Amino acid sequence: MFTINIYLRIAGIVASIIIGVVLTMLYGFWYAFPLYLIAVVLLAGYLLVGTVQSASQLMQIQDMEGAKKRLNMTIFPKLLFGPGRSAYYMLKGSLAMQGKDYNEAKELFKESENSKYTTDNEKAMIYLQQANLAAVKQNYKEAAMFVKKTDDLKITEPMIRDQVKQFKQAIGKTGQMNMQNRIAAANRGGSKQGRPRMR
Hints:
Shape: elongated
Number of helices: 9
Largest sheet: none
Radius of gyration: 26 Å
């Protein structure tokens, strides 16, 4: 997908407006109209798309601080086009989770989940992120609940299907370990009980 660097976009908006104003003063509005149109198109692109894709690219190369700064350049996230808005909140949630701000991450993932324009693949990714967050907080029951939600989705991306499968296996093993720990604890408790005294 073709994107314009955010700094070039901002520079293009400012330059188009300034040159447009100068041309309007010297020759009239219609001479400057193409420049105003360019400024409007660039501004609309910024408001609808934001900096989500470039932030995602920075995250892929593990530049988390750069991704955070790039996302912060999206000033009006509520104006983002549907899928972009969902991706924005998911990326913000991932960054909050990296910073161990789990409450903030939970709210951001919920905001992403509530987007009306997410595909089943995107919903699966959101559920996996929420499940991962719950697992980090050792709330395995909630993690299993989020993973189970993916059963109702038509996931077409093989990589996402594999991640769901791996997470289910991990949750299953965790559940077995917890059960074994509870049984062991019960057995330890039973062994500590004293025998009745012989009369």
